[in-house]
């Protein structure tokens, strides 16, 4: 859902069998994750992951952000975004 006060609209209708697990703001974008991957909310109000590399989407599960870093970690590993690029954590 997106909105404020009495003005709300549906921006994503979840049809996945596993719900979103974490949602965070990072670099002025909304990021969300589940065991199925990692997505961002685009300017058009739709969720997508076309600009997120596989090394990050494969780590879907939990999100955390602090000190300019975004970390995603799950069943298949962990990765961080340092503000300009992704790095896989081994």
Structure characterization notes:
This protein is mainly β. The protein has one helix at residues 54-57, and strands at residues 2-4, 7-9, 22-26, 29-34, 37-41, 47-48, 61-66, 69-74, 77-81, 86-89. The protein has a four-stranded antiparallel β-sheet with strand order 3-4-5-6, with no helix packed on it. It has a four-stranded antiparallel β-sheet with strand order 7-8-9-10. It has a two-stranded antiparallel sheet with strand order 1-2. Strand 9 (77-81) and strand 10 form a beta hairpin. The model has no long low-confidence stretch (mean pLDDT 87).
Short description:
The protein is mainly β and 90 residues long.
SSE layout and pairings?
Layout (H helix, E strand, L loop, with lengths): L1 E3 L2 E3 L12 E5 L2 E6 L2 E5 L5 E2 L5 H4 L3 E6 L2 E6 L2 E5 L4 E4 L1
Antiparallel strand pairs: 1-2, 3-4, 4-5, 5-6, 7-8, 8-9, 9-10
For the biggest β-sheet, the strand order reads 3-4-5-6
Task: Give the N-terminus to C-terminus distance in angstroms.
Answer: 35 Å
Q: Percent range for helical residues?
A: under 10%
Structural class by helix and strand composition:
mainly beta
How many helical elements?
A: 1
Query: Looking at the chains present, what oligomeric state does this protein adopt?
Result: single chain
**Which stretches are low in confidence, meaning pLDDT under 50 for 5 or more residues running?**
none
**How many distinct beta strands?**
10
* Biggest sheet details: 4 strands, antiparallel
Beta strand % = over 45%
Please tell me the overall pLDDT: 87
Shape estimate: globular
